[in-house]
Amino acid sequence: MTDQPLKLFNSLTREIETFTPVHEGEARVYTCGPTVYNYPHIGNMRAYVFADVLGRTLSWKGYDLTHIINITDVGHLTDDGDAGEDKMEKMAAQKAQSIWDIAKHYTEAFWADVKALNIREPAKWSVATDYIDEMIEFAKGIADRHCYELDSGLYFDVSTVADYGRLARAVTEEGEGRIETVEGKRNAADFAIWRKTPAGETRQMEWDSPWGKGAPGWHLECSVMGEKLLGFPFDIHTGGIDHREIHHPNEIAQNQAFCGCAPDPGGLDDATHSGAKIWMHNNFLVERSGKMSKSSGEFLRLQLLIDKGYHPLAYRMMCLQAHYRSELEFSWEGLGAALTRLKRIVMSAAALADAAPGDASHQKFAPMREKFATAISDDLNTAVALVALEEALAVKKVDAGVKRAVVGEMDRVLGLGLFDLTRAALRIRPRDAFIAEAEIEAELVRRKEARVAKDFATSDAIRESLAAKGVEVMDGDPLGWEWKL
Ligand code: AMP
Ligand code: ZN
To answer: What confidence score (pLDDT) does residue 176 get?
Structure first.
């Protein structure tokens, strides 16, 4: 089932391509990580669920996977280009804390979400500030031919590389949001690869460099960590779709410069000049009111979902139900539906939990395994793969061990961790619920007794008093849930 060719959509060519590894038998993947100045919102986490499914798929196909996810703890400005302040410096000033403490706190919060969503640990979490020397070396190597110095920093001249901006499909001079006010830039799209600390200021994070005290540009970080840890060209570079516009075109320009394949005819018709063979981008999770943000309204953190009584894997389920290249609209109803679907799957998987895994190649499951493999191999169509999983669970009169093996294999790719979940674990008490679970259970026992005794007045009274405390009694629920909050 794993031998179908893996087809992936390459944002650089805007085409579906067959994955062929740079290094025989290996897959090397770089994923742009979070900027740790605040908690990640669940939209950010969609990017890592997507990268995780990609990584799991490559492992399942038998490639020896090296996955790098970075942690950006310096250099990302409040604007993706060169305007604004460093996000980390700004938050540290606001909270009157050291940047290092801020970075530590939010990195750990991010890792907690990663764990809760069953996102596998990458081979390495590369932390940007651990690579400052390498960044300076990289910049020195390309400075003469591709950069110029201004008072504010060292700038990359985008006219020195062929096909600049191809990934964004943007016209260099008119690209959206990129006309910035830095005095002296040669082209509007030129960007800082080193930002000097303004005279008379000190920053919490600054390092000496040939261009004066300062900090690296955000785009430089990912070029350097990708090159150092995976080598150019590596196989796949991923990120959210916003990175297709500025961050990744700028990384690509630096990579072209570094490889010495910048000028024509060395342009991007050969994708490997970009540093990676395939560039992949997940689409956004959006709120009805528009783009998700960390500042507007109720900040949609994974913890908020948990506080409201939704198991975090219901959110993973929600992501899997959509194709990663489609926009996904968040709603509480949608999340509730994903949780119900997950409960159903977990309940049917529970019947298999004790069976010793058998031989997955049993012919009864051939159609579902074929459907699953075709879907995943078709640019990670998890929505259809989930249906194949449900169909496999529904197969009747078959050895439990065989079914377990089939379901287990599919779950290794989807990452729901079905055999580690129980129906009870999926029920999370909303944080503001003001009635204890034991009390609910005791009331329900009392109600059952009343009903057996045909004392419907008492039974109804108990039902109503529970309702007043926010508990809905669910007689005849098809999933066998007796109550919900
Ligand atoms: P940041 O911490 O801002 O660098 O973002 C971390 C990752 O989340 C990046 O890959 C972004 O492209 C991605 N991202 C940001 N907002 C969303 C969203 N609403 N939906 C999906 N991905 C997002
Ligand atoms: Zn990046």
So the answer is: 42
Bridge partner residues of 91 (DSSP): none
How many CA atoms does the CB half-sphere of 294 hold within 13 Å?
Answer: 13
| Atom nearest to 286 CA in ligand 1 | 19
Of 184, 159, 160, the residue nearest 173 (C-alpha) = 159
Query: Are the C-beta atoms of 134 and 228 separated by less than 8 Å?
Result: yes
Burial code (b: 16+ CB inside 10 Å, e: under 16) for 276-290 equals bbbbbbbbbbebeee
Q: Return the structure tokens found at 212.
A: 């004066």
Tell which wins on pLDDT, 464 or 10. 10
- How far apart, in whole angstroms, are the C-alpha atoms of residue 427 and residue 14? 42
Which DSSP category does 121 fall into?
A: P
Are 249 and 166 spatial neighbours (Cβ–Cβ below 8 Å)?
A: yes
DSSP characters over 355-413: SPP--TT-GGGHHHHHHHHHHHHBT--HHHHHHHHHHHHH--SS-HHHHHHHHHHHHHH
The pair phi, psi for residue 136, each rounded to 5°, is: -65, -40
Of residues 475 and 409, which shows the higher confidence score? 409
| 463-482 pLDDT tens trace | 888 877 778 787 777 666 77
Tokens 């108990």 sit on residue = 462
- What is the per-residue pLDDT across 296-323, written as a single tens digit (0 to 9) for each? 566 899 999 999 989 999 999 999 999 9
Name residues with Cβ closer than 5 Å to ligand 2, which is an ion.
Answer: 32, 222
Contact assessment for residue 6 and residue 18, using Cβ atoms and an 8 Å cutoff: yes
Q: Give the number of other CB atoms < 10 A from CB of residue 397.
A: 5
How confident is the model over 385-391, as a mean pLDDT?
A: 98
Give me 49's structure tokens. Answer: 């669920």
181 confidence band (pLDDT: 50, 70, 90): low
CA of 90 to the centre of ligand 1 (A): 19
- Name the pTM for this structure: 0.89
Q: Please name the residues in contact with 350: beta carbons below 8 A apart, sequence gap of 6 or more.
A: 422, 423
273 burial (CB, 10 Å; 0-12 / 13-18 / 19+) is buried
C-alpha distances (whole Å) from 389 to each of 311, 404, 405, 439 are 20, 11, 12, 37
Quote the distance between the C-alpha of residue 353 and its chain's center.
29
Rounded CA separation 81/305 (Å): 32
Q: Ligand 1 pocket check: which of 49, 242, 243 to mutate, most ligand atoms within 8 Å of Cβ? A: 242
33: CA distance to ligand 2 center in Å?
A: 7
